[in-house]
Each structure stands twice: as C-alpha cells, then as structure tokens.
Amino acid sequence: MRIEGKALLARIYIGESDRWEGRPLFEAIVEKLRASGVAGATVLRGIEGYGRASRVHTASILRLSEDLPILIEAVDREDRLRAVLPEIDAMVDGGVITLEHVEVIAYRSPTESE
After folding, report:
1. What is the pLDDT of residues 89-105, one digit of tens each?
2. Domain 5-104 falls in which CATH fold?
C-alpha cells in the first residue's frame, strides 16, 4: 500500500484503563484499524493529562495514576479512515476523536528505497 499527498489524521484520546470486551481499548482499536486496512497507527502513552471531568492523571511519583492518557494516531486516505470511524466511535465510551487533513510526504518501510 502506498499513500502520498492528501490524507486524513485521526487522533483518538482515551484512558489507559479503558476496556473493550475485557481487553485494553487501545489494543482493540489498533486491531480494528489494521483489520480495516488503515495504512498505519501509533499508540502513545501520556505522562499527564486531564479530560472532561478535569481530573488530572499523571505519572508523577507523588500522584501516580493507573489511568494515564493514551493517544492513538492513525493516518490514511480520507475514504478509508472515514469508513472505519463509526466502528471506532462505538468502542469509545469516554474520550475524544479528532480529525485533521494532512499531507503525507513519505510512507515507506525501512527496507524500501526511493
């Protein structure tokens, strides 16, 4: 698969303790994105954040949280990403999903040459 030029970036903000059918929600979302053929996804674990309830979640040793922020980013052609978003939205009970238009400059594996 190759994507270049205009694309869509989805950002899915959830909590580390969020679950889907007994397993971590971030794993279930990445699996759903992959099964749907989305070009790529990355999961990032935050060190601090807060959401709608304004409760701070932090990795600080003084206030250690077991529910750190998780950010899942996925990039692909707009049609492919929009097709799977309703399923992702149904999985996310609490969190935020954002979209932005991006331009893909390069998309290749480390073994590919130009």
Report:
1. 999 998 999 999 999 99
2. Alpha-Beta Plaits (3.30.70)
